[in-house]
């Protein structure tokens, strides 16, 4: 990236210098030549006036005085008369490259004044060298600024890449680095928030594993002891029956402990739910799925109330909607409509299509694992319902024909004290 920044800046600077410097050099060259010609013409007119005045006063011309008055000039003066008088002042340039201007009067005075053209061209070259030097200085300044700017941009990006790599390796410590660039600071803030969430998740997973190992050890030990008693008392039916009933009690206790641990884990996930703009998630999903529906010659439409907010996680709710849209695309038909509404206790998002619907024999167990009516894997709706439940909501089949699924979420204004959240299977 740094090399690209330097290259692009240098290319832009070179183009700017060429677009400005080349026309400037041409204009300066012409101005110098034109100025020299105008100066020479003015001297010729002034000199012819002086010669005419000297003729009127009958004063002879003094070549030495004219040479002092017009230094570096080669002057030729012709005066009409008998004989023709010719006056030459100065010496012709050795190079033979002359810039000449002349002037004359009606009384027979003709003046030609010349100067060395090489001197004018040297002046032009000096000005052009000055322009080139300024252009090189401008390029050097542009490159220096590009180097500084590229360092300012690439060093934070490298730092952010290291932070992201560290997050991927499991080190979820927030960096708290800020770089003075709004866009990069925003990325750093997002990474810090992600690090905090990952750290929280890892902590909860460790706590869950610790609690599970501790809580399951006692029921498993008791169950093992009862089974050993059953094996040892295989010849005594009454003892076997008594120990079998005790083993069932231990198994039920083990199931209760597992349910309690899962409920605790679900409550931890609920604590992560935050107010989410329903419109943003739905619009994002519709935009992502619209091209696929168009390829299938089907219509995807978003309707309902706008501006709704609900308690959820953006990723979890987005995955639920994506699963429902994929299900409608693969197993449904016709137009698919996503509708958002709000009630007293829930924000409801419905996904409905115009297909044949769901068969009666699989409708009651449509959310069970490996249950599918169209040759699918049978996992999409199961995972979608689990994600909805993890956010404190639920996913239901509200109409079989045509198929309509509804996601019920807690409204963002709900503080959780007045309504009981019914969660689906996690």
UniProtKB/TrEMBL annotation:
Membrane-protein topology: Multi-pass membrane protein
Record-annotated HAMP domain positions: 151-203
Listed InterPro entries: 2C_sensor_his_kinase, DraK_HK_N, HAMP_dom, HATPase_C_sf, HATPase_dom, His_kinase_dom, HisK_dim/P_dom, HisK_dim/P_sf
Histidine kinase domain residues: 211-413
Entry keyword Iron: no
CDD domains in UniProt: HATPase (cd00075), HisKA (cd00082)
Gene Ontology molecular function: any one: ATP binding
Gene3D superfamilies: 1.10.287.130, 6.10.340.10, Histidine kinase-like ATPase, C-terminal domain
Subcellular location: Cell membrane
Catalyzed chemical reaction(s): ATP + protein L-histidine = ADP + protein N-phospho-L-histidine
Protein name, as recorded: Signal transduction histidine-protein kinase/phosphatase MprB
The species this protein was found in: Nonomuraea bangladeshensis
């Amino acid at each position: 990236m740094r090399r690209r920044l330097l290259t692009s800046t240098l290319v832009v600077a070179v183009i700017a210098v060429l677009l400005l410097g080349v026309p400037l050099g041409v204009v300066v060259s012409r101005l110098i030549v034109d100025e020299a010609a105008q100066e020479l013409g003015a001297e010729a007119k002034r000199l012819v006036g002086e010669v005419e005045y000297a003729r009127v006063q009958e004063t002879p011309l003094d070549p030495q005085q004219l040479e002092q008055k017009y230094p570096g000039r080669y002057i030729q003066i012709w005066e009409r008369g008998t004989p023709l008088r010719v006056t030459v002042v100065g010496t012709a340039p050795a190079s033979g490259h002359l810039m000449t201007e002349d002037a004359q009067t009606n009384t027979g005075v003709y003046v030609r004044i010349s100067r060395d053209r090489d001197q004018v061209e040297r002046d032009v070259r000096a000005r052009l060298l000055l322009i080139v030097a300024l252009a090189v200085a401008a390029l050097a300044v542009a490159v220096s600024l590009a180097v500084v700017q590229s360092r300012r941009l690439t060093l934070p990006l490298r730092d952010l890449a290291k932070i992201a790599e560290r997050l991927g390796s499991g080190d979820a410590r927030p960096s708290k680095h800020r770089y003075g660039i709004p866009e990069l600071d925003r990325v750093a803030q997002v990474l810090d928030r992600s690090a905090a969430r990952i750290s929280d998740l890892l902590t909860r997973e460790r706590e869950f594993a610790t609690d599970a190992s501790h809580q399951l050890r006692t029921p498993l030990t008791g169950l093992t002891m009862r089974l050993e008693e059953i094996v040892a008392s295989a010849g005594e039916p009454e003892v076997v029956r008594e120990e079998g009933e005790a083993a069932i009690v231990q198994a039920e206790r083990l199931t209760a402990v597992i349910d309690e641990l899962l409920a605790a884990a679900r409550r931890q996930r609920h604590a992560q739910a935050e107010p989410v703009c329903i419109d943003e998630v739905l619009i994002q999903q519709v935009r992502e799925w619209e091209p696929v529906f168009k390829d299938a010659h089907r219509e995807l439409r978003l309707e309902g109330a706008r501006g709704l907010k609900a308690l959820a996680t953006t990723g979890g709710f987005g995955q639920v909607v994506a699963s429902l849209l994929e299900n409608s695309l693969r197993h449904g038909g016709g137009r698919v409509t996503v509708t958002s509404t709000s009630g007293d206790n829930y924000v409801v998002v419905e996904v409905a299509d115009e297909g044949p619907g769901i068969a009666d024999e699989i409708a009651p167990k449509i959310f069970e694992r490996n249950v599918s009516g169209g040759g699918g894997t049978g996992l999409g709706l199961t995972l979608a319902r689990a994600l909805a439940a993890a956010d404190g909501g639920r996913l239901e089949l509200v109409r079989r024909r045509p198929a309509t699924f509804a996601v019920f979420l807690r409204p963002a204004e709900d503080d959780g004290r007045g309504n009981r959240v019914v969660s689906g299977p996690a």
